[in-house]
From TrEMBL:
Family: Belongs to the glycosyl hydrolase 1 family.
RNA-binding found in the keyword field: no
Protein name: 6-phospho-beta-glucosidase
Record keywords, A-Z: Glycosidase, Hydrolase
Organism: Limosilactobacillus caviae
Length: 487
């Protein structure tokens, strides 16, 4: 028997973005605010997240403000007005696939309307048509860290079961509308991290005292998202035969900090809390180990009689993941910087790895390990839909951006991904985060750049918005043209 020596021929090379980080036009053509557009930018010099500012006061203040400067996700990189130019640049690199998300609040501005906003639907028609013109396959996220703020204010978002019907009215609308244009879909971006914070449960956490109360709220909200995701999968298969629905996991690869069995057990526990999400969405049922976790944390998930059947009947077609870093886990309670990014309270620095300026540990081999782990566990097609490195880019004296650090990061990850393919992993494609500079999710900075294309815009929202290819642009073009042979 033989094994694959490289990537399959129809491999989906491309890049990924999200509505609230690129579009701008937050109050144009009928659109209203989404949760993401109510998150303030990080204070100067603060590289950590500001995601948890979820008090009713802060949300009300945001809703009453029309400042783009304070809330940078309202301006994004102005893709709304630059999409033709941007897609042409991606086509020039030879993109086979481009991942965007639909802003739910562009289609149902408050979230609870019964008829959609036609102008919002028309925008994505134009975007998908533009992609099709260049044979670029759209990959579409239905909810990327956001929902209409109207639903947050009305019933605290996913804290309420009502969100399921509002979400599935939205998904049915877009499946019907784009049925001839979009084949690859996914429901919730990074469902394991997106379930926390106020885009998921409104300001409710603010009133809770204990960690267990917060966990109860989050896991209940998550349950509603699981059910909504399965119902959307059912709809998709009925409305667009042959279309594929994915779940999306922020894969937090972790290693035991030492071979002390106590560290190994803790690493396994932490790892299961990451894999739990895909256990439900791929296998269609809550795994046994969560029973103990729920009991020990005083969590009871309220379910309707047929929720479990719905999960079992409509699992996803593929598993997509983001991969940025790995962590190491120790049995001791620690408070290490990496915990900020990984969400792992037991994370410690791995002395074998370097970090990005934002403290994310760079670990290309971790991607191979992640892919093999997921393939071994699920035997379902995998799709890397985010991978990349945030960096401070400088325009050199010759007027160009020489981003060799970005090339090295991506090259090393693609090499390891190729190893995983040789190991037998069935991989659908590779999308970098993000092909064009955009507003960072965790810090809302423009200066945390990921793109092959530079966008002239700074952290205060000043700039011409002009687009310019960096060195990595030409490098990635060559990678795609050679199907990953010429790295
Ligand atoms: C992923 C998210 O977690 O990481 C993206 O899906 C995000 O929305 C990306 O932008 C990079 O993170 P950040 O915080 O550097 O923008």
């Amino acid at each position: 028997t033989d094994y694959p020596k490289t990537f399959p021929e129809n491999f989906l090379w491309g890049g990924a973005t999200a509505a609230s980080q690129i579009e701008g036009a937050w109050n144009i053509d009928g659109k209203k605010l989404s949760g993401a557009e109510c998150i303030k930018g990080a204070k100067k010099g603060n590289i950590n997240s500001t995601l948890d500012d979820a008090t009713l006061r802060s949300i009300t203040e945001a809703v009453n403000s029309d400042s783009e400067k304070e809330y940078p996700k309202r301006h994004g990189n102005d893709f709304y007005h630059h999409y033709k130019e941007d897609i042409r640049l991606l086509a020039d690199m030879g993109f086979k696939a481009f991942r965007i998300s639909i802003a739910w609040s562009r289609i149902f501005p408050n979230g609870d309307e019964l008829t959609p906003n036609e102008k919002g639907l028309e925008f994505y028609d134009r975007v998908f048509d533009e992609m099709r013109k260049y044979n670029i396959e759209p990959v579409v996220t239905l909810s990327h860290y956001e929902m209409p703020i109207g639903l947050t204010l009305k019933y605290n978002g996913w804290a309420s079961r009502q969100a399921i019907s509002d979400f599935t009215r939205y998904t049915e609308t877009v499946f019907r509308r784009y049925k001839d244009k979009v084949k690859y879909w996914m429901t919730f971006n990074e469902i394991n991290t997106g379930t926390t914070g106020f885009h998921a449960t409104g300001a409710l956490e603010d009133g809770l005292k204990t960690e267990n109360e917060k966990l109860q709220l989050r896991y209940q909200a998550l349950h509603y998202q699981f059910v909504a995701s399965s119902l959307a999968t059912k709809q998709l298969h009925e409305i667009i035969p042959g279309a594929k629905m994915g779940c999306m996991l922020a894969r937090m690869q972790t290693y035991p900090a030492t071979c002390n069995p106590a560290d190994v057990v803790m690493a396994q526990k932490v790892d299961r809390l990451n894999l739990f999400f895909t256990d439900v969405q791929v296998c269609g049922e809550y795994p046994e180990y969560m029973n103990r976790y729920f009991a020990e944390h005083n969590i009871t998930i309220k379910m309707l009689a047929n929720d479990q059947q719905i999960l079992k009947k409509y699992p996803v077609d593929y598993l997509s993941l983001s991969y940025y870093m790995s962590s190491a886990t120790t049995a001791k309670e620690v408070n290490d910087l990496t915990a900020e990014a990984t969400g792992n309270q037991h994370a410690v620095r791995n002395k074998y790895l370097k970090t990005t300026p934002w403290g994310w540990q760079i670990d290309p081999q971790g991607l191979r390990i992640a892919l093999n782990t997921l393939w071994d566990r699920y035997r379902t097609p995998l799709f890397v839909v985010e991978n990349g490195m945030g960096s401070y880019d400088k325009i050199s004296e010759d007027g160009k951006v020489h981003d060799d650090y970005r090339i090295s990061y991506l090259r090393a990850h693609i090499e390891q991904m190729k190893e995983a393919v040789k190991d037998g992993v069935q991989l659908m494609g590779y999308l970098t985060w993000a092909p064009i500079d955009l507003v960072s999710f965790s810090t809302s900075q423009m200066s945390k750049r990921y793109g092959f294309v530079y966008v002239d815009l700074d952290d205060d929202g000043n700039g011409t918005l002009e687009r310019m290819p960096k060195d990595s642009f030409y490098w990635y073009k060559k990678v795609i043209a050679t199907n990953g042979e010429n790295l």
